[in-house]
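Sample 3 of the quickstart, ligand 2-acetamido-2-deoxy-beta-D-glucopyranose:
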Amino acid sequence: MWELELMVQRSVSCKLSTFLLHLLLAGFISPTIEAGNSLIPGQPLYDNGTTLISSRGRFELGFFSPASSSRRYIGIWYRNISQTPVWVANRLSPIDGRSGRLSLSGEGTLIVTAVNSSTINWSSSNVTGLTNPEATLFDDGNFAVREAGNDDPDSFAWQSFDFPTDTLLPGMKLGWNVTSGLNRQLTSWMSADDPWPGDYTLGIDLQGDPQLFIWSGLQRLPYWRGGPWNGLHFSGALGMVDPKLFNATFVVDPHQVIYSFNFLDPSPISVLVVYRWGSLRRLVWNGGSGDWSVVWSVPMDSCDTMSVCGVNAVCGVNALRMCSCLSGFLVNNVSSWNPSNSYGCSRMSPLDCGNGTDEFFKFSRSKLPDTSMSVVDRRSMSLDQCRESCMKNCSCKAYASSDISESESGCIMWMGDITDLRLYGDTGGGQDLYVRLAAFELEDEISNQSSGMSRLAVMIAVPALAIFLLVCIAFCVCRCRKRNNCVVVKEIEEEDLDLPLFDLATVLIATSNFAAENKLGQGGFGPVYKGKLVDGQEIAVKRLSNTSTQGINEFKNEVVIIAKLQHQNLVRLLGCCIQGGERMLIYEFMPNGSLDAFLFDEAKCMLLDWQTRYNIIVGIARGLLYLHHDSRLKIIHRDLKTSNILLDQCNIPKISDFGLARIFRGDEMEINTRRVVGTYGYMSPEYGMNEIFSIKSDVFSFGVLILEIISGKKNRGAYQSNYLNLLGHIWSLWEEGKSLEIVDKSIGSFLEVEVTRCIKIGLLCVQERPQDRPTMSLVVTMLSSDNAIPEPKPGFIVALDSSNSSIRKQYLLSINNVSNTTLEGR
Ligand SMILES: *[C@@H]1O[C@H](CO)[C@@H](O)[C@H](O)[C@H]1NC(C)=O
Ligand SMILES: *[C@@H]1O[C@H](CO)[C@@H](O)[C@H](O)[C@H]1NC(C)=O
Ligand SMILES: *[C@@H]1O[C@H](CO)[C@@H](O)[C@H](O)[C@H]1NC(C)=O
Ligand SMILES: *[C@@H]1O[C@H](CO)[C@@H](O)[C@H](O)[C@H]1NC(C)=O
Ligand SMILES: *[C@@H]1O[C@H](CO)[C@@H](O)[C@H](O)[C@H]1NC(C)=O
Ligand SMILES: *[C@@H]1O[C@H](CO)[C@@H](O)[C@H](O)[C@H]1NC(C)=O
Ligand SMILES: *[C@@H]1O[C@H](CO)[C@@H](O)[C@H](O)[C@H]1NC(C)=O
Ligand SMILES: *[C@@H]1O[C@H](CO)[C@@H](O)[C@H](O)[C@H]1NC(C)=O
Ligand SMILES: *[C@@H]1O[C@H](CO)[C@@H](O)[C@H](O)[C@H]1NC(C)=O
Ligand SMILES: *[C@@H]1O[C@H](CO)[C@@H](O)[C@H](O)[C@H]1NC(C)=O
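Result:
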């Protein structure tokens, strides 16, 4: 019976959601009336469903509204793929209603205005000298103003291909007309529903040997470097176009620097697109699934971030350490050697150029370093001649051949420090780079290939060991002192705790008698106040409210558990105060408050960029790993949620609120409890339904946390009309391969691989069966490695409805067969 009901409901809601989907898309595709492929003066194109269609029907031009927006733009799209505009005219000045009009002036200037309005929303650059102008949409997607009937592209007075938006179509040019200064570049959309220029721009930089770049922001900071052209592809963009399918060309001459690609067989549909989070992707249209497939995407990993390792260093993702110095170089600042803040490396021995004794060390499979300080000679110079020229010129620090398409030929010479060099290693790609070294360094190098590494290792290891010893000694001294000062409270004496006791007067002074303005919020069992001790230390005081009967147990529980724990990612208990009927816990103060206050606040969430969020995820994972496996006790937190994650001044996350935590014995795998505690939305299905909890229940909550951190949305609460909760929504996007759509808009730039990995781990953690979920130690490993992560298994996702008294009455979201179906079970 139940089964039957499910079936019926499934098919109904499935139809419903397809219907909704159509409604959503309806803004885009209203039935169209073709107005031929050309526009002539005096016959404008109105926003009444009329469009231009290219002669063989491949492209269409007309008014459209992106995604959920109601604003109208003039755009061009593949006729069959109306949801993806490849060009937008008035991206800066949309028309508010359907009153837009695209017209061609008698001189040949295209103009977008609203009917009955004199303000011009958009116009093409002024065109002169045409007697009989015509604006035609061609079958390659180019919209051009020309003398009627003249098909020669070189004579076009204006063309959309010269003003690309975020998409490079086959046959379109990227780069410069050096003579006229015209620079064709791609700029991402602001968001999925706003074509306004976003933060990322793809273009070609002319300094030195011309290179492909993605820049970010108005300052155009280099974000990703595709590197110089090597005859086949950009040095750092192997796979940007598949040579079996495309003919990619790069033209460098005094008049132009142009990249373009064309299909060898024109039938497939494929484009290059810059996305709002900073990635460049090549998409191929998959007619079968009716969607784009991503076949290539950069930045592909951390080594693709511009200059992560600093000067004269090399980045390798599969190496022992991501950053290391070039052979013959030493790290400049051992204490700052981390990927994001590097002072780079400098030469161990000065070059001896005058005597001509220098040698070159060969790096194989390299992405050529930044060539903006290089000189290039494209003549058919051999590699030996290149070496000779480099040797002769004392400013030359490295060389490589500039063209590897047939044999190695041509010559690039680097005239300064080597920056942004990466090695591809066994993954393939890259070419040989020769770096200048003093002769005896090279001998050294040959006798001991890894000396650079081992020297670095020693440089790091020795001070690190010393610091470690010092810390150990300091720690022991501190602990001994503390022990002597400790006053153990009678009530919790049996538990044998080292817990300093605070005097009530001290706490009252620190919090100004629990002044209302010092109240920080409401904790598990009572209000929390901010305070300041006389020595200036800031504290947070958690006060057990008198009315709470449950509170006293939770209070004791928290003291017992947290007093025994010490970890960077757990909030630190400084002491307690039990005096005059008051029971209080005193913690270190966390100036940045709790994670939920940042995450779900529109203004504050801007402060959490992807790197910060990633660090928070990793921090929480480490804290939880410590609770589950590494501390002296085995502890299940049972109430992990964003409001229980506090952030210190460096945004290091600290797990707090151990009122509901439980210690379990080593042999206990799961615990059956009489009372279900925890927070709806974070609770695992087996706990909600069967009152069984285990460390895997915490893993579930952690999965919810990851997904909330990435999406900036709460799991609970209606997320989108046809999905019950965030988890269900993400599951279905994941299955469609579109999981990046959930990424919070305010997250800024991010590495697709990292975010995708985190989403995948999040989904693994919220799998229905506890045994399918990973342990926290596995989670920590997966977070930090690129090794294969298993595919999460789709299953039932349970969203508990707190407004309903019976926990068993649940809304289930089945992902099993139908991806977006909601059902209610009895
Ligand atoms: C759209 O407007 C044009 C110009 O006024 C007109 O010729 C055409 O019939 C209109 N189409 C529809 C569907 O109203
Ligand atoms: C567009 O769709 C039509 C009919 O569905 C089909 O005949 C045509 O080949 C498609 N064109 C492209 C470019 O996919
Ligand atoms: C574009 O036209 C609309 C009328 O629909 C007007 O409200 C808007 O201000 C115009 N924008 C610009 C930038 O001119
Ligand atoms: C434009 O003005 C004419 C005459 O004033 C009016 O009939 C028409 O409805 C107006 N159109 C729009 C879109 O406002
Ligand atoms: C086009 O010409 C007009 C009149 O000569 C001038 O006002 C306008 O600024 C020009 N526009 C551009 C984009 O050059
Ligand atoms: C560059 O632009 C100028 C002026 O528009 C034009 O005459 C020339 O042909 C263009 N050069 C190339 C290589 O496209
Ligand atoms: C590739 O493009 C270049 C320049 O456009 C052209 O000369 C060459 O013939 C093309 N090759 C093929 C195989 O289409
Ligand atoms: C080395 O790095 C540390 C940490 O980033 C920094 O505080 C210090 O000033 C640096 N030292 C030098 C000599 O640059
Ligand atoms: C050349 O080598 C000699 C001996 O190795 C050294 O003393 C001299 O300074 C070197 N000359 C230069 C210009 O480096
Ligand atoms: C070395 O090359 C640079 C760049 O081409 C050039 O400016 C410089 O004059 C050269 N120096 C010598 C000594 O040839």
